[in-house]
Each structure stands twice: as structure tokens, then as C-alpha cells.
Write a structure and sequence with these properties.
- The protein is mostly helical and 121 residues long.
- It is built from 5 helices and no strands.
- The longest helix is centred in the C-terminal third of the chain and has 34 residues.
- The relative contact order is 0.12.
Length: 121
């Protein structure tokens, strides 16, 4: 039998370090990062969270499928290993900068055309 609470803790640490998600437990981090994770990874992480919750109950622990939980853990860690936090920040900075520059260009064009139409230029 595997220690599912350790799996959940390791997955929660990986979510915190790679995606900068805050929360006390894996469930909280999953709720906060719903948009950041693909559906299959979210479902796999939720399976691990449920397994960790059922682990403490002797009669309910029989319901846990070890192979499914291990496959879910492998899927989550494989996805998080591919995430590069610096690349995500760089992409966010570039897209924000381009949006600001685009807005300034449009504002300048509208202002220039308005001044030209009114005869001030």
C-alpha cells in the first residue's frame, strides 16, 4: 500500500513551486489553479486528493485503486515537470507590453486623425 498523503503533499509542493499556487492543502491549490491545469491533470490530482482523504479510513481505503492513483500521480508530475515558470512569466510580460504599446499606437492614431480632421495639424 502506498502513502497517498505523501503523494498529495509532493504534488501540492510541485503546484506551489511551478504554478505559484497558494493554499494549505492540495484541494485548495486545485481550486485556485483550475484554469492553469488541463482537465485530465485536474481530474488526476483530484483523484490523488480523494485517495489521501480515504486513506485514513480502514473500510473506505479498500476502495482506492493503487494503479489508478499511481498513474494519476505520474501524469500530474509529468505535466508539472514540463512547466517552466520563467517562460510563463516572460510570456505574460511580453503580451502585457504588446497590449500597452498597441493601445498607445491606436490612441495616437485616433488623436492625430481627430486633430487633422479639426484642422489643428
Amino acid at each position: 500500500m502506498t502513502d497517498y498523503s505523501q503523494m498529495a503533499d509532493r504534488l501540492a509542493e510541485a503546484l506551489a513551486s511551478k504554478l505559484r499556487l497558494k493554499g494549505a492543502s492540495l484541494g485548495e491549490k486545485l481550486r485556485r489553479g483550475q484554469r492553469l491545469l488541463p482537465r485530465k491533470v485536474r481530474e488526476a490530482a483530484a483523484l490523488i486528493d480523494r485517495a489521501a482523504a480515504l486513506e485514513g479510513h480502514p473500510k473506505l481505503a479498500v476502495q482506492i485503486d493503487d494503479a489508478k492513483v499511481q498513474a494519476a500521480y505520474d501524469l500530474c508530475m509529468k505535466h508539472l515537470k514540463a512547466v517552466n515558470p520563467w517562460e510563463k512569466r516572460k510570456d505574460l510580460l511580453i503580451s502585457t507590453g504588446l497590449a500597452v504599446v498597441g493601445a498607445l499606437v491606436v490612441t495616437a492614431l485616433v488623436t492625430g486623425s481627430l486633430l487633422g480632421w479639426r484642422g489643428f495639424l
